[in-house]
Amino acid sequence: MIIGIGTDICDIRRIEKSIEKFGQKFLDKTFTPDEQAYCEAKARPAMSYAKRFAAKEAVAKALATDTSGALGWTDVSVKNVPSGRPIVLIKGTAQVRLDAITPTDHKATIHISLSDDYPYATAFAVVETLSDC
After folding, report:
1. Is the pTM of the predicted complex or chain greater than 0.85?
2. pLDDT tens for residues 15-35?
3. What CATH superfamily classification does 2-131 receive?
4. Taking residues 52-80, what's their average pLDDT?
5. Which residues, at least 6 apart from 110, have a Cβ–Cβ distance to it below 8 Å?
6. To the nearest whole percent, how much of the chain has pLDDT over 70?
7. What is the pLDDT of residue 68?
């Protein structure tokens, strides 16, 4: 059963400007150390950062309720498995929110798809639950 969907588009140039203007302070506030290491190893780090920024927004939308507030930026992170497929890791307020919307006796999974075509990066998130039965 799908209990949430979210999508976001991010202008890569906006992320480039934020990195230029705020530097490490912006990166530390928005991205986990693992995300930063992954992005910095890429030829165009801003493109990878923008996809992760869009993913955080898409996941926040997928987990949103009528009364929920904002999530912490680093409560949602994106990691790539060896095949390159992105996966979502959550903690803190994101985990609390996921637990609250997941039906009893169900297990939740967050699926994420990322894409970019300069100057835009996009993300699409789906929260799915399956019965433990």
Report:
1. yes
2. 999 999 999 999 999 999 999
3. 4'-phosphopantetheinyl transferase domain (3.90.470.20)
4. 93
5. 59, 62, 88, 90, 98, 125, 126, 127, 128
6. 99
7. 80
